[in-house]
Amino acid sequence: MGISFLFLEKFSPKIRNELSDFALHQKKKRFTMADLKDLSSNPFSALFGSVNQAQEFSQAVTKEKKEKDEEKEPITSAVTEENLQQLALQKLEINQIIENVFLICLDSEQSHDTDRPSRCVFMEELFTSLEGQTWLDMECIDQAVFERSLMENPGNHVIRTSDRPTEDPGAASLAGESLVLRYFYHCYCRYKAIQNDKKHQKYNTELMKCNEIILMNAKNCLQQSELYPGQNTQKQLLKLCEEETVYLSSGTETIVEFLDKVIQEIQLHQEDGSLEQVMKPIFLMIGDRFMKEFTLMNPGFSHNVDLLSMFVKHPALAEVFLDSSAPVDWTNGKAFERTILGSMMSLSCTPKTDLGPYEFFENPSSKTKQDIDAIETSVQQPIANNAEKIYQFLFKMVKLSPDIRHKVMNWLGKCIAANSGRSKIWSAQMPQLFHQMYCSEGFGLNLCHIMLKFCKPFSEPNSTKLLKIQCSYPSVVPKDENHSKQIGVHSGGMNKETCLVPSAENEKLPEEESYNFITECFFLTHQCINMSFHTVHEKFVKLNQELHRIQRLYQEVRSQGSDEVEPVRSIKLQMEKGMTLYLCMKAALTEPVLLELCLNFYLATATWLVQTAVVDNPKSFTQIKLPLPETIPKSLAHIPEFIMGNLTDFTLFLQRFKDDLYEVAGHRLEHFMTLILVFMGSPDRMRNPHLRAELAETLAALMPGDPQRGGQGLLSRYHREILFTNHPLIEHLAQTLLHVFVSIEMTGQSVEFEQKFNYRRPMYMVLEYIWEIEFHRDAVKKLAEEAESKIEATDAPLFLRFINLLINDGIFLLDEALDFMSQIKEKQEQKDSGAWNQMDQQQRQEAESTLRQISMLARYHNVMANYTIHALDLLTRDIKSIFCHCSMVDRIAGMLNYFLLHLVGPKQKNFKVKDKNEYEFKPQQIVSDICQIYQNLGESEEFCIAVSSDGRSYSKDLFPKAINKISQKCEEEEELYSNAPEEFLDPIMGTLMKEPVLLPSSKNIVDKSVIARHILSDQSDPFNRSPLSLDMVIPQHELKEKIHKWIAETKNKR
Description:
The chain is mainly α. Helices cover about 60% and strands about 0% of the residues. The strands form 2 sheets. It has a 3-stranded mixed β-sheet with strand order 1-2-3, sandwiched between helices. The longest helix has about 40 residues, at about 840-880.
């Protein structure tokens, strides 16, 4: 049977000639072992390393064929042309595989073979050393690849190896790739492609050898980079991973697989260089980008986090990354921000320090509200996206292994602990030291966002996962890092925090053997919020107050000169910078995803706190009943006060800056109300009276807003209204409110006036709101009846203590307020007379400072006096007898007479200052309230006698003057409104509109209160009879602002 040698046509002429000559000479001839004893003259023997190898191959082939077919005539001791052809083909195909994988060759001539690469690097030195061998095999591949990797300019050795007319335009650059690690990665890609081709399956052993050589050389590139002068192989790996994972749309499986296998090789050969030595420089390069190159809006941030995510999929690399992110000083909060991981969290719209630099909201006075809103939206989206990226990055590492989880939580816990000093009062007094010791606002808020993401799985009210929280966690102090890992506690300093109730050591819960991930996330997140969101909110509020002060000063000095002269120019610049910082902080604090995470977390926290107030380690969520059991759970002695403080702080933030978010909570707001009713009136479960007073502020924040002011959706208002009427425990609200009001005075602790002002004001607001709800009013009346029946008791009843404080406060506040108003009048007269112009600059500055201080105190006292007197007015409308009791009547009568005399008598001229509204001084309103109290109690003979018997202040002319004062107020208001522009007047009643709304069909603008009364009897537009309901009217916010601005300006002129 003839043998075809047509397969030779595709090989190069040199190999083809050698094989075809042998074929013509030996065609159709069989050889015996004797004939083949001397194979040196056989051209195929050149394919073997030696003649002995050729003989061994021949014997092996003969044996194999004999075993396969015993029935056939044995080909004993014979090697056919077919055997040698098979050998030749095998050798040539292996050569072809090596050429296609490594793009190197020993055959410099072109061929017709379409499977051969079109361009290769000709290994000339190896060709010479092999004495002209023209093919590559497994014996020389190691040397060939190593020599190829050491070539300085491999592109100079690229030759054309195929004579086909077309070729890949990038073939030459691929073959001549000079970057050694990139070259081996491309070799790996080509190896994978060949391996997946079924026609090469028979060469699996040879392919595996190629793979081993690629990985071993790639490993050497990274561990022994000194072998490759002028090449930064770590930088090559980083660039390569970037191109494959970020900028290309194709999958990343190949680069990930390549990276994993190279890492395995490095780990197996640590003696050549550790994994940390190889990878740490790469991580530091990425960290430098976060620190020096990227800004909040830079898309490179997301790309590089993805790159890091690809690296840390491997547990060993995750460990290296976390070790590389260790701060220089684990006790310095700022040091964490300078690490690789910390730098990822530092990008924000807030500046690193108050001095800048500012990236957003520059020159805010030149921008419209729409411009500012657009900027705010544009910066909030990347803040949320970046936080999500970092969270996913950390979460994937946490799931890798217990060791990696420990390292992640250790970094987070120590970072939070090192920055916990941000929340201390003293830190705000030393801004320079503050910025050296602690992280920036942006870093803190981003870390807060990430920690809230960890808590998201159990951030639902009554989530069963909340029952897994182990209350003793904050009290545990690990002995060392190994102990920390063993018990799952990575917090720091939490054991030093004040807890809800103090307790002796034997009254606390025992420590657990270990603490679960939910517990750690819960407490660490609260500690993080306390040092971040809470602290930034405090700073934000103070900045807001400071801006108001600067604006008032600016308006004052501007009225005296041009904007381009000093000090107007400096004050304007200060105001611009302050507003820029304010807008940056507002954008960061009001980022929607962050706020929603906070809201859900606090709702979950509220439900958990309520259960811990009833029983230790609750096993289920049970319905709360008041009064609570007498036994105080030990858990409360472990729970830091800042957990409750975080919650109250957040509710106040929403009320001030994002009230519409309450609409998102909907009916879930009931959990806040339950928390308030459980803790606000329970000093045995929350010892700190200030915290209980802050719950009263939270209660005020939950009240429905004034519908005339707008700003709340109908659904939000509905849910907030039913809180005060339908909550299961709402019947206890009145008593709880009075209890906390009284407890502020009864603690024996020093409470600054301004702080008391901030506490009492929301309590008055709540009292005024619930007084309009009948069953709350009846509850207060019942407390008054009980107090009157026990008025002589040693332990004074709650309501008696409450009204006693009201009278005491009323006397003190109004007396102080009038004294301050008198001082202001005196200072203003001195200034107007020119006396201040005679002072030197320092004296004048001191005088200005004194006036500002007195003005602030006057404002505080006036506001509180107004609230206090109005509260007495409300109470005396329905509760009379206890005020007229012999132990009380003389005090209240004397108070009323005293202040009426000062406000309408000869001394009233002492309080005539410029712009009473600036100081919240409302004498007509106070007189009106005082007269109403007279009227409320006037039916009591005891009260009338007490009023007329007051020898200090009473006179028969007192009341006619009061009536004149009230009449004067009414006349002033009528006169004010009579001059209002036509567009400000309601077309139906002719009165000044307070809440203008547009009727959708007739397009007329009317006052909301007027049309609301109309709709009660007639659900149609009064101008065209079209159907109309109150939810159809359209608020006219711009007109409303113009009206209120006009009212304020008109009052100021008077």
